[in-house]
Amino acid sequence: MTQKEKLFYYLDRINNSTELKDEIYWKCGLEIWKPNELQDDLESLMEGGCKQNYELIPFASDGDGGVCVLVDNQYVSMIDSEGGAGYIAASVDDFINILLWYKYIPITKKVFDGFEEFIEDYQRDEYGSNTSELINDFYNLNILIWITEWYMKNS
Fold first, then answer.
1. Does the reported pTM lie above 0.70?
2. N or C end of the chain: smaller count of CB under 10 Å?
3. Confidence (pLDDT) at 104
4. Is 70 exposed, middle or buried (0-12, 13-18, 19+ CB in 10 A)?
């Protein structure tokens, strides 16, 4: 399965559940869209900038004008409204794991002195992002799907 196919699979699952989509928005701070519904937003962010030679598929927005994109059917990146951009994850699966595990994209203006300080900050849960049953169920179901696919492929 290509990264684009995985992305469309996740988007379909999330967009077909209003409760899950809302939960991800409220707990993770991202609004998940159907493929290419954010194309105009992406084009606006790219205006006046460098000419890109990448295939970019926008699929989520952060509420501040930033857009998450799948880059060249490989990586997930964030392009923000202030002209910044960077990779978030090496694959769609990694992006989903980061998003649902940390409950937000771990981009922060704060520099942590080490892992322990990051964990302390995360455990304070200042954003009210305790794991919900709905997100846990989605996450656990996908783990079962991955294990089943791996087993079928390797047996």
1. no
2. C
3. 53
4. buried
